[in-house]
Write a structure and sequence with these properties.
6 helices, alpha+beta, 3-stranded antiparallel beta sheet, 8-stranded mixed beta sheet
Amino acid sequence: MSNWYKEHSPAIFIFSVLSLGVLLIIVSNSIQGSNEFLLIIKPILAGIGGTFTAGGIATLFLNLPNTREYISNTISNLFVTGDIISSLTNEHKAFLKKKIISDEIKNSTEKIEVGLYEMINSIQKNCQTDFHLHNYIVDFTVVDSEKYNDLVEEEQYVSYRVIADHLPVSHNKMFELVLEYHSPVLDNEDLVKESFIQKFNLKMGDSYYEKKDLEISEFFIAELKHFKYRFAGKVKIEDSLDIEIKAKIIKPLIDKSYSLYVRYPTKGYTARLSYKNEYKYVCNWFRYWDKTNSISESILDGKILPNGISAISREWLLPGEGVVLEFH
C-alpha cells in the first residue's frame, strides 16, 4: 500500500488541490442572503477556491511530462502483459497482427503480398493446437518377400509422446489418432486383402488395438485397385500420453520414397529407412524456413547407415513440415 501511495502521490495531490478549489468556489456561489458575515466570507471562499484551482492547474501543467510518461507506461503495460487483447475485436486483432508482422520483416503493411501474409497466418493457425509431440520416432525396415517374388515386406515402428497444452478452462482434451495404410493390388489374386496387413499393434496409453480394429475398403487410382486400411480413435489426455505402433505390411515396391510430415508441433524427430546396401539413400527436409539455409548438424541431420539412412531433427517441426527418405 505504501509503495502504491508513493508512486501515485503527485496525482493524488493535484486531484486534491483541484477538488478543494472547485468545492470552495461552488460553496461561495451557493451563499445567499444579506447577513454581514456571509457577505464577508463569500468573496474570501471564492478567492481561496480560485487560488487552489489555479494552483492545481499550474501544478498539472508542471507535471505534464511525468503525467504523459505515466499514461504512456500504463498503455505499454497493457500491451506487454496482454491484458488489452481481450478487449479487441477480431478485426482489430487481425490488423494488429499484420502490423506486428510488417514490423518484424521490416516492411510496410501495404507492401506485404497477400499470399505471403496468408501463408504466415496459416502457419500460426496450424500451430494453435491443443497438443504437441515429443521424441517422434518412425522406423521402416524393408526386406524382399520370400513367398511373393514381386513384393516386399515392410516393418513399421512408430513411437512418440503427446503433450497436452492446457487451457485454464479444462485439463481434459480429446486427442484424435487417424492411421491409414494404402496398398495397390497387382497380379496376386491369391493374396486376399486381409493378408496385405500381416501385423498391426497399437498401444495408446492403456488401450490396445489389433488388426481386427482396422476398417478395410477398396478404391481405384487410374483403374488400379487399392486396399485401404484405416484406424480412427479418440482418447482423453490429461497431461501426456505415450503412443506406440507396430505394423508389418506386404506390398509391391513401386514407390521408392517415403514422404513423412508432422500434423502437430513436434520437438525431436527421427526417421529411419533400411533396405539393401546396394542402393543409394538420400534425405531431403522440407520446412517453411531454415535458419541456416542448409542442413546443419546441430539442427537437422542426415546420416547414411550400412543399408539405409536416418534423418534427425533436434529442433521444432511445424505442422506440414517433415522429410523425404528415398533410395535409388
